[in-house]
From TrEMBL:
It comes from the Eukaryota. Residues 350-410 form the V-SNARE coiled-coil homology domain. Pfam families: AMMECR1, Longin, Synaptobrevin. Its main location: membrane. GO terms for cellular component: cytoplasm; endomembrane system; membrane. Involved in the targeting and/or fusion of transport vesicles to their target membrane. It is a single-pass type IV membrane protein. This is AMMECR1 domain-containing protein. The chain crosses the membrane at residues 414-433. It comes from Nyssa sinensis. Residues 240-334 form the Longin domain. Belongs to the synaptobrevin family. The lineage of its organism: Eukaryota, Viridiplantae, Streptophyta, Embryophyta, Tracheophyta.
Amino acid sequence: MVSANREMVVYCFDTLIAHYNSEQAPPPAFDEGQHPLFVTWKKVVNGGEPRLRGCIGTLEARCLINGFKDYALTSALRDRRFPPIQAKELPYLECTVSILTDYETGFQYLDWEIGKHGIIIEFTDPDYNTRRSATYLPEVAAHEGWTKIEAIDSLMRKAGYNGTISESLRKRIRLTRYQSTIFTMHYSDYISYVRTTRELTPPIQTPLRSLPPEANAKLHSQELTFGKAFLDLEAFEKLPSNSSKYTYSCDGHTFNFLIDNGFVFLVVADESVGRSVPFVFLERVKDDFKQRYGASIKSDGLHPLADDGDDEDDLFVDRFSIAYNLDREFGPRLKEHMEYCMNHPDEISKLSKLKAQITEVKGIMMDNIEKVLDRGERIELLVDKTENLQFQADSFQRQGRQLRRKMWLQNLQMKLMVGGGVLTLIVILWLMVCRGFKC
């Protein structure tokens, strides 16, 4: 069994430093193999507690050399939780490599040991009926001083669940435990190792982003200029939320974005190509992508790019395999779309104009429809008001008749009372004059 060792950490430092210097890293001094792996960067300042600066890896088996090369850079530069590590931070860094082994399915969510096992949890979010998953490496719970339940609850939050965590929900968790071997090295130890074994100190050039534009043009290749622009701009965070298409120009190139239902499609092109060709390319890619994978994205079943349909495989592992299988399966399609767009510029230009006209007509039609609907709503409102007025008129007429009848009855009652009073008075006077009924 392969264990994490010093040469693996040295290779991670070599890879990061080579990235800053725009060079190739020295060949690794460890044997090739295939294992799940993680690379963790921490920063130690003034002898304090190491603070996490990036941690990314894979739960599926990867070739160790390519895996450490990829994840040394990904964890240092593209962990979304942290800003990219800069070259000036190197003297304060320590690197930890982890080789994961001994995957086992737990009987329940407490079937693991703190400090010995890393854990992967999978559960269904009861609020959104979606499946969630996340992992902690073996050293995390012990380092944080958590109990098992505290670690599980924290991992559920890491997976994106924001609802109430109940015991019944914990019992529905599917837990996979694993073990790991780790090796940690500080940058100062790395320098000492390099001086001893290679009789030199790795040079650290000024970070790319601190150089003036003219120096960048002379010292670095076009590919690195693309990377500089993309990282310095933090392009994805600057995308306008109210636009489906967006273009950013930099160093004679355009970064063209197409946003559709949470997916961001990007192509980098020379400014001389214009805007129409890149966006036609992105439209073709988007339509092809949605046709191939759109249905599976909305379903809870096995993704078509996951490794296989074995029910025993971990969902978390399958998700990590999707990115690599996508490159293998969809990469040739990207090439076909790009070649078509570059070989038919006139046709694409005409098509773009036609689409623009269609979009304009569609906008006018939608505006007219909205006006008609708005007018219809106003007519309906007028009808409602008319009906309400008619109802009020009928009610007023009915109340008028009732009031007239009531007043007539009151008038009749008054007349009867007055007439009765007069008649009584006449009878009394008659009796007084005639001294009874003898007249």
